[in-house]
Amino acid sequence: MHRLLPLLVAVPLLGAALLAALGRVLPRVVAESVGCAVSAGTAALAVVLLPHSSPPLVEWAGGWEPVRGYGVGIVLVGDGPGLGMAALVSLLTLAALAYSWRSFDEPPHGHTGAFPALMLLFQAGMCGFAIAGDLFNAFVWFELMGVVAYALTGHRVEEARAVQGALTFAIVNSLGGYALLMGIALLYARTGELAMAEIGRGLDAGGPPDALVLAGFVLVLTGLLVKAAAVPFHFWLPDAHAVAPTPVCMLLSGVMVQLGVFGVWRIHGTVFSGPGGLPAGDVERVLMVLGAVTAAIGALMCWYQRHIKRLLAYSTIAHTGLFLLGVGTLTPEGDDGVALYVIGHAGVKAALFACTGILLDRFGSVDEHVLHGRAGALRGVAVMFAAAALGLAGLPPFGTALGKSVTEEAVGGPLTVLYVVVSAVTAGAVLRVAARVFLGLGPRPREARGEDAYETTGNGEEPETEQRLVRVPDTMTAVPALLLAGALAAGAVPGFADAVARAMSEATTAGLVHTSVHWTPVGIVLGLVSTLLAVGLAAVAVTRPELLAPPARALPLRRLQSGHVGDYVAWLLVGTTVLGVLALPAVLTG
Amino acid sequence: MTAVLHVLPYLVAAWVFLAGAYGLATSRNLIHAVGCLSVCQAATYVLLLAVGYRDGATAPVFSDMAPGTRPVVDPVVQALALTDVVVGATVTALLLALVVQVAKRHGTVDPDELTELRG
Q1: Do B117 and A194 touch (CB under 8 A)?
Q2: Domains plus CATH for chain B?
Q3: Ranges for the NADH:quinone oxidoreductase/Mrp antiporter transmembrane domain (chain A) (predicted)?
Q4: A178/B43 Cβ within 8 A
Q5: pLDDT tens, A76-97?
Q6: Buried b (16+ CB within 10 A) or exposed e, B19-53
Q7: Which residues of chain A are within 8 Å of residue B27 when distances are taken between CB atoms?
Q8: What global pTM score does this model have?
């Protein structure tokens, strides 16, 4: 079976090449159908390989296996988490391609294959990153998915905002990528190896960590956390997500950002968790501090947005913070919880973006204030939007709720409050949008003027379809419905959570430590509490807007999001320094 | 003296990276910013080649000498640097294309004047 592993990358790459080459002559329907078929085939392959991932599938590309313990070949590792991420990526790519099927704006003559080809290339990059067992290859896939994501974000080149957002995204992420590469070079300098497991062994042989290992750790983490949009590396994300085409937003928010968290988990687990890596306490401090700050700032900024896509982008940042907290526990329970949370979150968040895309194509706006009361006729979309918001809050039996409750238990202590509050605030903001846009509840919000107007409105965004939709195509409503069903099934189907937990334990402890993942009364109660809190917040915000309006105190926080790429680069350097300071005790005491 | 010479390439790499990042943070022109990003990437080339350096070694090309007759520098980092160059070319080309579009749509390449996305 391990011989099939490279196909996860090769199939979408070949599909993309085919579409790019034949795009000139293919009619649009054929090009888009080929795109869907290729991504579906890759998804099927990942799902077929999943049951065989214990013990993990290992493939040395081209048969370049290590000789006498030294390897120069490239290794692919298909363990449960890696293949699971590849399957999630492929399914979400399929959903995004199906969503845009035939309804998207007519491409220019002779470029019918461009958009599906780019999406397949994006899928290949993400799948490659998920199954990379080699640090330098992880960097190459990291850059490939980055470059394709910049191109897709700026896909609508006629729009001023789209090209600006794409440029910011590209500069900040490329800089993060170069930091990652410098970290990899330092680790290679110490160990002479590039395969992750070999580097880990090499570090362990070298004794306790020194300044070089610390520098490698900080630089590698910088690159991954830029992708994961952790504060203060997060500034690119709202600017990019607000302007990217809707199907691209589904992928960016649903899986690409989470792949950054996955990278942190994978590289820490294989490279830095041994005695030659960094002590657990220091890694825990780094991830916990960053996760908590990310969750809090993401939730706060999410509440203050009126541009719906931007609001969803900040909610992704807030949830990434929660994922980082879970990974930062460095316990099997935390890993299981985050894995489930990521799966549920991908379905819910992609469904929310899909519904927002329908609003954009129908009304030519994604502004909460402008759309006030205008979308009453879209009943089905309203139901899905509200259901997804409840899923975001963690209403049982959504997969998000199960993942959140398991992670909460692993994190424990006062941080449980953070989980409840952050998920309630982000879901409350989405419910507030739903109440205003679909039901027209409450007074029309007053327009801020002068200094208060430091915000991005969602008005004047161009619809992505050829003309404004009169009737919503079935594909555009079926996709969010299926995504929601998936998120629900992740929590409700008995045995799914246990299968995820088994896959995680197989990957981390070779199956020695079994954790059982199930609903607990405390978890259900906390899920209901955050849902009620979200509904309450939304109700207060709609009926008495002045009570929860952004205070003047919040202005400095909003000013940080200046849209200026130089500021973001400066924050990246600050973030790297903070990482170094937080992890410094590892070498001082060692 | 040799200790200084051994550390020097690493210090140069760090300095080049920080110089590029400083240029990015203070840039008044997006084309200049893209150039600064390339400077940051040049730091990775310096670092990679410094990692593979060996005293008295020659290039890892075996067309005119038998393997094992004299030491060669590490060919792996050279392969990495080559891949890195390809990645850099792609990124720079795409970024410059985006800058052209920014200039067309916003009528400026000064990042201080791009104020549509904020808050």
Answers
A1: no
A2: 2-113 (1.10.287.3510)
A3: 132-407
A4: yes
A5: 999 999 999 999 999 999 999 9
A6: ebbbbbbebeebeebbbbbebbbbbbbbbbbbbbe
A7: 565-566
A8: 0.95
